[in-house]
Design goal:
Elements (H helix, E strand, L loop, with lengths): L12 H10 L1 E5 L4 E3 L7 E7 L1 E7 L5 E8 L5 H8 L7 E4 L3 E7 H10 L1 H27 L2 H16 L3 E3 L2 H8 L3 H13 L3 E4 L2 E4 L1
Antiparallel strand pairs: 1-7, 2-6, 3-7, 4-5, 4-6, 8-10, 9-10
Length: about 210
Amino acid sequence: MNLENISEFKASPEIRMALLKVGFAKTFAEGEVILNENAYIKAIPIVTSGSIRVMRMDEEGRELLLYYIKAGESCIMSFLGGMHNDTSKVKAVAEEPTEILFIPMEKVSVLMQEFPEWLDYIFRLYHKRFEELLEVVNAIAFKKMDERLLDFIKKKCDNTKSSTIVITHEQIAGELGTARVVVSRLLKQMEENGMVKLGRNKITLV
């Protein structure tokens, strides 16, 4: 594993070497669960390739997409939970084949003391995730479902760097916390308005 290849991970050679020394790497297939809700957090992840989808589940098992973790980023929720010896409040799933460098929690505080830039990295991530969570709250509270659906498609396309995403209406409904029939109806309207092109389990943003 070579952290030098991650352009998004802006850190000195010293902190990169320290992370590689104390961390351990694991790979996950697309759709594989990385962390479940209520699981204790023993290490925080740094994505070195691929991406992670982070969700919150309700009592009925419905999922709500919170944010994505891309290469060079970590999960601030894991950091906070691990630092306080608490369980995870979110579920993390590999959005695509993903490689992760895990930093054991007992090493995290040591790195914070030795490398101030590591602490700065954590705070920058916290700020970014906070803004993303505010967007989720704003969407649920103030946006109509068609706006949320279009935002969802755009974010998926941006995450995969493609204008076409492979996903079922059922999966979209689960991530947006709504019914499949609602998603199908809105997608049909969007196609009629020339906003998207629909295929079998495919959606192309026009």
